Structure formats: C-alpha cells, structure tokens
Amino acid sequence: MFEMELPASLVDDVHKLGAEAARAECVAAALKGVLDGSGGDRKSLMEAALPRMEGAKARLSVELDAKLVQEYQAFCEHKDLRPDVLLAGALVGKLHPAELRPAAAHAQDAAGGASSQAAAPPAPAPAPVAEWGFLQRLATASNVLIQTVIALLLVVATGYLAHRHYHRFDGTWTRDYSLSDKTHQLLANLKKPVVIVTQWMPETQLQVEVIEKVKDLLEEYAHGSAQVKVKDIPALINPKAAEKAFQDLGLKQPEKFNDVIIACGDRQKTASLDSLYEADYGGGQFGMMGGGPQTMKAFKAEEALTSSIQNVMQDRRPCLYFLQGHKEPSLEDAGGRGEQDGISLLKQKLESGENWDVKAWSSRTERAVPDECDCLAIVDPGQKLLPEELDSVRKYLERGGRLLCLLEPSRERDVAGLEVFLRTWGVEVTNGYVIEPSRKARLVVEVAPGMADARIYQDLLKFVARDYGHHPISEKLGAAPPMFWQACGVDKLASAPPELEVTPLAKSTAESFIRTNLSLESDRLVPGEDRAGPISLAVAVEKKLAGAGDGAGQRKARLVVIGNSIQVRDWCQGRFGASDLVLNSMRWLLEQEHMISIEAKKPESHKLSVESNEMENLVWVRNVSLFGMPLCSALFGFAVWFLRRR
Fold first, then answer.
1. Could you give the number of structural domains in the chain?
2. How confident is the model at residue 273 (pLDDT cuts 50, 70, 90)?
3. How confident is the model over 452-457, as a mean pLDDT?
4. What b/e sequence results for 398-431 when a residue is b if at least 16 CB atoms lie within 10 Å of its CB, and e otherwise?
5. Has residue 121 been placed in a domain?
6. Same domain, 218 and 344
7. Residues 311, 327 within the same domain
8. Which of 119, 420, 483, 509 could cysteine-pair with 113, CB 3.0–4.6 Å?
C-alpha cells in the first residue's frame, strides 16, 4: 500500500478517476515519469505543486508495486527532494494540462479499461509553458508587424503594376469604345497639352444618347494620352462658377451650350453637337419634314474631335485660295450662277471645321499665285482661262504647289481650256456625261406631259461610284460614298510621263458609258460614238521635283482632278456624302493625310428572332429553368442530409 499526504484538491481529482485500478495506474505513471524524466522537468513539477501544498491536505492510498515505491523513495532521498511535492507536481502534469482531456473523460476511459490488462497507460504530461518574457513578446510583435508591412507592400505593388500595365478591350459589336489607328497615332505624337471642355444641356432624347456616347469617347481620348485633359463644366447649374472656370483655363466661353471646346495654348476650336452625329428623322430629307422620331444614323464624333485636335496643334493655319473671275461658284452667300449654287457653306466648313484660311484669287488682276497659297482650287470655271493665267498655275505647280480641279461637262466650254493644260500633268479629261443604266431609279413621277423620259435621263446621270482606287484619299469613302451627278470622265493619260504618279480614285461600273454628244438624251450606248465603261471619275497626281531635297523631305507637286463639282455646292451640303471626297483631297494636297475622314460608326441593334415552331422548345427551357433546377438542388440537399444521418 502506498500512502502520501497531498493537496486535498489533487486527491479529489485522483479519486474522480473512479476505479481503484485507474487511480493506481495514474499514480504509478506519475512515479515512472519522475524516475525516467518523461514527466517533464522535475524543478518545474515542484514549482507547480508547491502552491498546492500550502492548503488543506488529504491522504492518498493506492496499491502499487513495492519495487516502484522503493525506487521512488530512494530517488527522492538521493536527490534530497520532497516525495509528496514531487509526486503532486507529476500528478498535476497528468491531470490538469490544457492539451489533455478533462478528468471526467479520462476517468471514464480509465474505468472502462480497468478490467483489462491491455489498457494503455496515460500519455506523459508535457512541461508547463513558462510565461513569455519581454524579448519573446517583442519578437512576436515584430514578426506580426513585418508580415503586415509585407502584405501592404504587395497590395500597393499590385495596384501600381495594374495602373502602369493595364489592358482595355472593347467587347461591343460596333467597336463603340475603340479609337481608330489614325487617332491613336495622333495621340501618341502629342507634344503639347490639349484641354477638351464640355458644357451640356440636352434638349431631346437623341441628344441625351449622343452626349453619353461623346462622354465615353472623350474618356478614351484621355486614356489614349496623358497630354489630353477632359473637363466638364456644369454651366447651367452655376453660371458664375462656369464663367470663372473658363477664365482660369484661359478659354473663351461659347455663347451656347452643347459645344465641345478643344484648346492647345492660345489656340481654340469649337465642335458643335450637331457636327458629332447624323440624325435620321424617320423619312424625308429635309429636317423634321419626315415626321418620324429622331434616331442616330451615324456617330461622327471621332472624326470631328481628332481633326480639331490636329487643327489646334498646328503652328500655322494653311491658306487655301479659290480661283475667281471666270464665272466660278461664289464664295459668298449669294450663288454665283443661281440660288444656293455658291460654295459659301464649304468655305465656312473649311474655316471653322478645318481651321484653314480661305481666300479668293483673281488671276486677271493678280497674275502670280500668292506666295502664301498652300493649295489652289479651281471649281468649274464657266469661261476659258487665258494662256497667261494657265502659265501662272503651271509655275505655281513647278515650285511645289498643290492644285484641286473640280470640272463638269459643258456644251459651251472650249476643250482647249483646262483640258489641254491637264494633259501635261498626265490627266485626260473627257467632256461628256457618264451614264449608269444600272443605277436607274424605278420610281418616276410624271410632273408634266412628256417629262417622264427626262426624269429617267436625269436619274441616269446621278449615281454613286463603288470602285475606288488604293489611295489615302479614297480609302475611307466606302461608308459614305459621294454622289456623282452629271460627271465627266477624268482618267490617266496613256502617254503620261514616268515621273508622274497618276492614281485613279473612283470609277463607274462596267455597265456604264460616257456620252460625248451632250444633246442626246438616251439611256443606251451608241456604238462608235460613246465609250464603254468603266469610266474613271477622279485622279490624284504626284510629282517629285528635282533639286528639292531627298527622301522624306523632298518637295512634291500634287494635283487632284475630279470630274464633278456638285459636291461642293451649297444646296448639296449635308446630303449624298457631298464634301467627303473634296475634303479628303484637300487634306492630301496639304499633306495632312492623318486628318482624312474617319469612318463614322453606325449604331446596330441585335435582336433574337424566334420562329413559331421554336416557341415550344422555349417553353420547355423556361420550365426547366424555373422548376427543374431548384428541384435538383433540393434533391441533392436531401441526399446529403440522409447520408450524414447514417
């Protein structure tokens, strides 16, 4: 029998083990742990048991192996240790560590295994954890702080890399949020800051839609270059603050809303909202006469904004002269040969939209072409040019000038006028009407007896060319091709000198022909008199001048001849893609190819059409979506619950 005075609380814990065999086994394991050192550090055991020895004590009596008791007592005498204190510490390690099960659960296991000799002895007690010192707490806090700093640095580095190396992509069908290559090239080459200021006050639902698209487009411009800054001024909400904002920016406040102001330094250009889109009025050709709701037919904001940015970046405004004095269309509001037959709208567009200076040159009073002339335009002269005047034009071209000729068939004009002069530049002009039988309009209204045939013949003279050459002028005309009406033939001369690079810009179809007998009104080809198509309608000529530099800096003379002048008339502006070909030609002549028309984006709607025989399948899909999927989820959940219960 082994007996020893121990703290009463500890004796109670030992007695809670239940069976006598369990208590004896627990005490024996504690003694063995002290003897072989597996019970932990003896000093720690004693320090843990000393506070307990000061309270009430009780006697613990258990049957143990005599040999084990003798070894324990001898060990304590040899080490000069108190047996009761050492045993109490060992029992504390057995009964009270946080890693072990509670005493009651341990007692149940011990009681269940008391009747069997194969019961496993309890695991050795781990050493009590000593209280952390200052250095340990400092090391732990430093470790947490370092990990937190590293995590923050990773977050910041990830955000920085995402900001510097992000990728944007456009997932729309019509590429509404993608800029053209020409715009990207312009933005990449910006050397000066550009400010784009807007102030909106939409009046119709269509304007609201256009403004939203313009805002998205301006955001793409800002992303495309760090030199572009976009600022929206709410002028309607706070007029005084808006006025001050314009003063701070050094800009002139426009008199009306819905304008986009593009500024670079002291240069400023305004693009009106109406110039950013093309509206469809639900039928009709003239404003609201169609009577239908307004919808957007084409979105042209990118072309207007890109051209405006290029204009304000120019150090000098190009100067464009129009030849006057030979019954040409007038540059003023009043038409030269009839109401709205002038080209005043084209002049206004060139000055406000292209930022060019437009002036008139009277060759009969001022012989030489002005030195400041960057491009000379000759639009359908009604009288023959004198040899002295043609000589002035020739000298202008030979020193690297740029010439645009817009011609029309005429029964009165002498063929020995401009036609002979243009042959020296590799251009052959045929004074006749180009007729397109395949373009004949089927709807003919007989406004008077005998007029139906005349209306049909007029329709034969009005057509849209579909075959365009590979040239910067014509590469973007496919979306809005210009209308040709009463056009003459303009083609490359067969015997053109090799130093002249002549490129056809537009051609009629193979079914067409050119009629040189202007008095004959018929839609049929006359063999031996008419020339079969296709007929060239416009050409571009470039000549490299000798002794004017080498490579990219070599001076060049450029010439564009178009067999139609209706495209620049006031009454034709805004219809038939009228001035696109002329504007592109002027930009090419001035070596501003990057400003050539950017294709307008047309809104598209994609609808899902379902046939009547497919509606049954849609009903089945709907029922499966509404009832089948929730039912499958419920059955799966029930199966999981049932399996877990088993």
1. 5
2. confident
3. 56
4. eeebbbbbbbbbbeebeeebbbebbeebbbbbbb
5. no
6. no
7. no
8. 119
Q: Give the residue ranges of DSSP H helices in 250-386.
A: 301-313, 344-348
> Can you read off the two tokens belonging to residue 160?
């920085």
> What's at 390, amino acid-wise?
L
CA 543, CA 523: separation in Å to the nearest integer?
39
Residue 239, domain CATH:
3.40.30.10
Question: Do 340 and 275 share a structural domain?
Answer: no
C-beta neighbour count of 230 within 10 angstroms:
16
pLDDT in tens, 220-234: 898 888 899 998 887
Q: What whole-number distance in Å separates Cα of residue 86 and Cα of residue 99?
A: 21
In sequence order, the 6+-apart residues with CB closer than 8 A to the CB of 93 are 30, 33, 39, 40, 45, 48, 124, 125, 126, 127, 128
270's enclosing H/E stretch is: strand 267-272
Quote the mean pLDDT of the chain.
77
pLDDT, position 289: 40
- Residue 91 confidence (pLDDT) above 70: yes
Do 419 and 514 sit in the same domain of this protein?
A: yes
Average pLDDT estimate for 134-139? 84
Look up residue 160 and give its amino acid: Y
Contact of 571 with 338, CB cutoff 8 Å? no
Both 302 and 326 in one domain: the answer is no
Radius of gyration of the chain (CA): 48
Regarding whether 416 and 561 lie in a shared domain, the answer is yes
Domain termination site, one of 315, 336, 369: 315
Residues 279 and 354 in one domain: no
| DSSP labels, 564-593 | --GGGSGGGTTSTTTTHHHHHHHHHHTT-G
Question: Of the ranges 352-366, 383-397, 566-580, which one carries the lowest mean pLDDT score?
Answer: 566-580
Point out the least confidently predicted range of 82-91, 172-181, 258-267, 433-442: 433-442
Last residue of a domain, one of 145, 164, 183: 164
Instruction: Report the pLDDT value the prediction gives residue 55, as an integer from 0 to 100.
Output: 67
User: At residue 346, does pLDDT exceed 80?
Assistant: yes
What is the extent of the structural domain holding 73?
2-100
**pLDDT beyond 50 at 336:** no
Q: What are phi and psi of 497, to 5 degrees?
A: -60, 150
Indicate whether 64 and 200 sit together in one domain: no
